[in-house]
C-alpha cells in the first residue's frame, strides 16, 4: 500500500466549489440533479460535500492500511468536519495575507517526500497511481499543507520567547542531557562459531570489511553472503549506554563510514560499521575573518569600469593604504561599508558561491583580484582563519529548537481554538 511508502503529516483536500450537473439525453431541465452541495459556510468560504467525502475517504483509507479500528461514523464525520473548518479559516488567512507556494517550492517538497521513502519523483508518482491516488491532487494537498504551516508560523512564532536561563536549565536536566548526548548509527555482521571455525569467520569478515569499505553496505553484503552462521544488519541509532557491550569499546574509535577490523567474542566474530554520528562534546569547524569592497554596476558604471576601479584600489592597498579607510570611502555594501568592509567571522555556506570560492582560495593577508558576484564586483582580504569548537553552540541550538517545538504546540492549540470561536460558522448539513 502506498501508505507504507510515504508519509504526509496532514492532507488538505480542498478544491474549488463546482456545482456538477448531469444531463441525460432527452430529459427536461427539471430532472437535472445537483451532485454537490455546501455543507458548511466558514466566514467568507465554504466546505463542499465533495470535499468532506474526499477527506473521509482518505481517513478510511489510512485507518484500514494501518490496521486500526474504525470509530463510529457519526463521530468520525464530526471530528473531520471540525478539522476542515479550522483549516479553511487558516487557508483564508493565507489568501488574505498573500501566502503563495511556488511550483519550484512544491517540486522540492514533493522530491523530499519521495526521497524520504527511497523513491525518485517518477517512482513516487507511479506508486501513487498504483494505489489509485492522483499525483496532481496529492501535489495540491501538499501545497495546502505548506500554506497552513506558513500561516501557523506567522501567527505563533512571534509569541514564543526562549530565555537563556530556560536553555541552561534544560541542558542541565536529564531530558536535555539525553537530547545532546552523542549517538551512533550502527550496522554489524556476526559470524557464529556454532556454524564454523574462528579462522573461517575471520577470513569471511575480512572479505566483508574490504567489500564494504569500498563503498558497499552491510545490508547489501548480507543479501549476497548471508547464511545461518552469518547474519546482522542495521542496529539503528544508539546512545553510548545503549550500544551492545561487544561493540562498546570499538564504536568510539570509528570515524563515520569506517568498518572495524573483525574481532572475536565467546560467541563469534564481529565487524561493526559507524554509518552516522550526532551529538557529542566536540564539533570543530573552520571559520574565516574577512573584509571586502563592493562596487555595483549601473547605467553609469559598466563591468569593465567597476573591475578597473577595483584594480586601482587594490594596488593602492598593496602600496600601503589602509583597506578599511578605502572601504569606507568606496564600498557600496550598505551593511559593511561603514565598518571598513568588515564581514566578521564567517563559516562555509554563509556567502554566495563566487564570494566563498575566492575567500577559501585566499590565505590570511592576501588581497584578491577583482571578481564578480550577483551583487557586483568585489575585492576581499582574508584577515585570519581558525578552527572553532561550536559544540556548545550546537547544544544550545538543539535545546532552543526542542523548547520552541513544545511551546509552539501549546500556543498553536490555543490559537486554533480562538480563531474557531471567533469565526462565523454555519453548518448546513
UniProtKB/TrEMBL annotation:
<keyword id="KW-0697">Rotamase</keyword>
<dbReference type="InterPro" id="IPR023034">
    <property type="entry name" value="PPIase_SurA"/>
</dbReference>
<comment type="function">
    <text>Chaperone involved in the correct folding and assembly of outer membrane proteins. Recognizes specific patterns of aromatic residues and the orientation of their side chains, which are found more frequently in integral outer membrane proteins. May act in both early periplasmic and late outer membrane-associated steps of protein maturation.</text>
</comment>
<keyword id="KW-0413">Isomerase</keyword>
<dbReference type="InterPro" id="IPR023058">
    <property type="entry name" value="PPIase_PpiC_CS"/>
</dbReference>
<feature type="domain" description="PpiC">
    <location>
        <begin position="181"/>
        <end position="276"/>
    </location>
</feature>
<dbReference type="InterPro" id="IPR046357">
    <property type="entry name" value="PPIase_dom_sf"/>
</dbReference>
<keyword id="KW-0574">Periplasm</keyword>
<dbReference type="InterPro" id="IPR027304">
    <property type="entry name" value="Trigger_fact/SurA_dom_sf"/>
</dbReference>
<keyword id="KW-0143">Chaperone</keyword>
<dbReference type="InterPro" id="IPR015391">
    <property type="entry name" value="SurA_N"/>
</dbReference>
<dbReference type="InterPro" id="IPR000297">
    <property type="entry name" value="PPIase_PpiC"/>
</dbReference>
<dbReference type="GO" id="GO:0003755">
    <property type="term" value="F:peptidyl-prolyl cis-trans isomerase activity"/>
</dbReference>
<keyword id="KW-0677">Repeat</keyword>
<dbReference type="Pfam" id="PF09312">
    <property type="entry name" value="SurA_N"/>
</dbReference>
<feature type="domain" description="PpiC">
    <location>
        <begin position="285"/>
        <end position="384"/>
    </location>
</feature>
<dbReference type="InterPro" id="IPR050280">
    <property type="entry name" value="OMP_Chaperone_SurA"/>
</dbReference>
<dbReference type="Pfam" id="PF00639">
    <property type="entry name" value="Rotamase"/>
</dbReference>
<protein>
    <recommendedName>
        <fullName>Chaperone SurA</fullName>
        <ecNumber>5.2.1.8</ecNumber>
    </recommendedName>
</protein>
<keyword id="KW-0732">Signal</keyword>
Amino acid at each position: 500500500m502506498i501508505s507504507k511508502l510515504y508519509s504526509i503529516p496532514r492532507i488538505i483536500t480542498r478544491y474549488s466549489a463546482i456545482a456538477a450537473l448531469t444531463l441525460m439525453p432527452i430529459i427536461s431541465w427539471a430532472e437535472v440533479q445537483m451532485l454537490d452541495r455546501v455543507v458548511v459556510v466558514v466566514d467568507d468560504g465554504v466546505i463542499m460535500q465533495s470535499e468532506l467525502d474526499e477527506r473521509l475517504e482518505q481517513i478510511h483509507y489510512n485507518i484500514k492500511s494501518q490496521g486500526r479500528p474504525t470509530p463510529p461514523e457519526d463521530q468520525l464525520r464530526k471530528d473531520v468536519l471540525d478539522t476542515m473548518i479550522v483549516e479553511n479559516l487558516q487557508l483564508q488567512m493565507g489568501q488574505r495575507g498573500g501566502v503563495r507556494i511556488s511550483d519550484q517550492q512544491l517540486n522540492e517538497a514533493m522530491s523530499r517526500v519521495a526521497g524520504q521513502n527511497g523513491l525518485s519523483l517518477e517512482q513516487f508518482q507511479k506508486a501513487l497511481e498504483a494505489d489509485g491516488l492522483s499525483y496532481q491532487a496529492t501535489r495540491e494537498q501538499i501545497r495546502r499543507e505548506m500554506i497552513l504551516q506558513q500561516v501557523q508560523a506567522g501567527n505563533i512564532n512571534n509569541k514564543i520567547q526562549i530565555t537563556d536561563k530556560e536553555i541552561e536549565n534544560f541542558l542541565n536536566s536529564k531530558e536535555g542531557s539525553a537530547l545532546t548526548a552523542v549517538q551512533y548509527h550502527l550496522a554489524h555482521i556476526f559470524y557464529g562459531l556454532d556454524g564454523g571455525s574462528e579462522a573461517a569467520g575471520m577470513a569471511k569478515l575480512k572479505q566483508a570489511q574490504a567489500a564494504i569499505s569500498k563503498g558497499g553496505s552491510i545490508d547489501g553484503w548480507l543479501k549476497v553472503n548471508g547464511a545461518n552462521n552469518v547474519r546482522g544488519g542495521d542496529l539503528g541509532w544508539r546512545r553510548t549506554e545503549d550500544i551492545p557491550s561487544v561493540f562498546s569499546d570499538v564504536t568510539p574509535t570509528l570515524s563515520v563510514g569506517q568498518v572495524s577490523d573483525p574481532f572475536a567474542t565467546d560467541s563469534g566474530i564481529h565487524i561493526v560499521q559507524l554509518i552516522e554520528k550526532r551529538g557529542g562534546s566536540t564539533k570543530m569547524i573552520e571559520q574565516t575573518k574577512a573584509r571586502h569592497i563592493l562596487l555595483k554596476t549601473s547605467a553609469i558604471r559598466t563591468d569593465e569600469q567597476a573591475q578597473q576601479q577595483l584594480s586601482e584600489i587594490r594596488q593602492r592597498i598593496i602600496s600601503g593604504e589602509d583597506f578599511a579607510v578605502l572601504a569606507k570611502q568606496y564600498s557600496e555594501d550598505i551593511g559593511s561599508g561603514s565598518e571598513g568592509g568588515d564581514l566578521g567571522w564567517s563559516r562555509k555556506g554563509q556567502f554566495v558561491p563566487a564570494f566563498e570560492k575566492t575567500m577559501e582560495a585566499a590565505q590570511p593577508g592576501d588581497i584578491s583580484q577583482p571578481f564578480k558576484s550577483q551583487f557586483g564586483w568585489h575585492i576581499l582580504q582574508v584577515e585570519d582563519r581558525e578552527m572553532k569548537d561550536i559544540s556548545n553552540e550546537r547544544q544550545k541550538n538543539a535545546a532552543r529548537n526542542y523548547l520552541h517545538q513544545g511551546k509552539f504546540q501549546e500556543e498553536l492549540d490555543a490559537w486554533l481554538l480562538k480563531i474557531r470561536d471567533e469565526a462565523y460558522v454555519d453548518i448546513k448539513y
